[in-house]
Amino acid sequence: MSALSLKYVALGDSSAVGVGARHGGYVEHLFQRLRRTRAGVGLLNVAVSGATSATVLSGQLSRATRARPHVVSLAVGINDLWRGVEPHQFESNLDQIARGIVDTGAPLVLANLPEMSLAPVARLVTHFLPMELLVARIREFNAAVARVVERHDLLGVDLHTPSRHELPNSTDYFSSDGFHPSDVGYTRMAEHFWPVLLEAADRGASTARATG
Asked: Helices 26-37 and 183-211, interaxial angle, to 10°?
């Protein structure tokens, strides 16, 4: 193996990029924590602001697989949610992404959607997306994520359950646009990812040592 003993590849949308924060998104927080606990950690973040599950599939997956990752993370779906993507199409896209990553041998950490009906922006879109419909769509999307996690034996991160407590009880979770997390919000996202990503990183490093 090369001096780079753990290659972390991140797929996703603006939350992985860190839009709305001064100190990076949840991916940067995770990378810095990995660097403090592991030697030789590298990051390739191919996430793009505005990404949907379809654009992750078409524009990010091939870059990720060519990088020969040791561990991969993905949180996507909020843009699908707003743009009217059907849950079955969202699930199909996630299925194809999961198959592509699993074929590399790297563990995939896949997160579900937070309860975005509690975000400030949700109050601004109720004229075209009623609150009850938004809540129902989030539930359907998260059911799709759960099926993909089980189907492909992935490592799942639950952002939804803690968000139901964190979002109503925090005045600084979101940035000024009421949609993207703030530095505080991204830190909390990273906290929920961290134990799962660490488990995935240990698996990926073990596989790399066995095959390197």
From this structure: 50
pLDDT for the residue numbered 2: 47
Q: Which two tokens stand for residue 2?
A: 């090369």
Pairing of strands 41-45, 71-75: unpaired
Please report which residue ranges of 59-111 form alpha helices under DSSP H: 61-66, 78-82, 87-102
Write out pLDDT tens, residues 106-140.
999 999 999 999 999 988 777 777 899 999 999 99
Q: pLDDT value at position 208?
A: 65
Residues of the chain scoring pLDDT < 70: 1-4, 207-212
Residue 163: strand, helix, or coil:
helix
Give ∠ CA 118-16-85 in degrees, rounded to 5.
Answer: 60
Rounded to 5°, angle at Cα 47 from 29 and 136: 90
HSE-up (13 A, CA, CB side) for residue 98: 24
Q: How many whole angstroms separate alpha carbon 41 and alpha carbon 170?
A: 33
Distance separating alpha carbons of residues 132 and 134, to the nearest angstrom = 5
Asked if residues 141 and 80 have their Cβ atoms less than 8 Å apart, the reply is yes
CA 84 – CA 66 distance, rounded (Å): 31
pLDDT at residue 125 in the model: 76
Tell me the Cα Rg of the chain: 17
Please list the residues that pair with 43 across neighbouring strands: 8
Closest CA relative to residue 188, chosen from 177, 174, 178, 208: 174
